[in-house]
């Protein structure tokens, strides 16, 4: 099954830096607010106020946009991957993927046989009419590097080629080294640079979350060899509007 939004995302990922919108608030009509100028978006199921039951409503308002809709979930909740993908979501960002077993679980629950073990069934994603060709569906899969363990296992993680890229979580990575300071990545600047350099050497796309709503920081990150960047969050943008 060919998903045009996913195919377009993968082609663009090799040519330019893609900027994504990040949602933590269950605003069902978000699609009427967000602009098509974004290249992708993510509904955050790990942090914020969004529940599994909210995803379908938010997706309905975003479905006519020209960018893929992703959902972030924690690796501890990876068994929810089939349910989320059955809703017609284009892919997943998976938090706290720290070792090869975590990545194996992502593949196991996200891909159909023979690559994975995702179960087959009628769902919104296939209009309740599953076809043989649907087994070829390959969602966007982006594990996160945001813990000391993941950094130390970096070369092991690179052995997996089922993913569209890796995503750096700078705040949690900083906290895992006991150097936590919200929005400050300089404390672990060398760690992040090594991740980016290693990914580039292996021709693997790499992204990062810029928590600050300061657009000038996005411009700086674009010059740092990132393939994709998450621009702040809806909750942070609202909170900092008058500050």
N-C termini distance? 47 Å
Strand order of the largest sheet: 1-2-3-4-5-6-7-8
Overall pLDDT = 93
Structural class of the helix and strand makeup? alpha/beta
CATH class placement: Alpha Beta
What does this 3D model show about the protein?
There is one protein chain. With 243 residues, the chain is α/β, with parallel strands linked by helices. The protein has one domain (4-239): Phosphoenolpyruvate-binding domains (TIM Barrel), CATH 3.20.20. Helix content is 33%, strand content 16%. It is built from 10 helices and 8 strands. Strands 1-2-3-4-5-6-7-8 form an 8-stranded parallel beta barrel, surrounded by 5 helices. Helix 4 (100-110) links the parallel strand 4 and strand 5 (140-145). The protein starts with a helix and ends with a helix. The model has no long low-confidence stretch (mean pLDDT 93).
Descriptors for this entry?
single chain, 243 residues, alpha/beta, TIM Barrel
Describe what is shown at a glance.
The protein is of the alpha/beta class.
Q: How does the SSE layout of this entry go?
A:
Layout: H1 4-13, E1 18-23, E2 40-44, H2 52-62, E3 69-74, H3 81-86, E4 91-95, H4 100-110, E5 140-145, H5 148-152, H6 154-157, E6 166-168, H7 170-176, H8 189-201, E7 206-210, H9 215-222, E8 228-231, H10 234-239
Parallel strand pairs: 1-2, 1-8, 2-3, 3-4, 4-5, 5-6, 6-7, 7-8
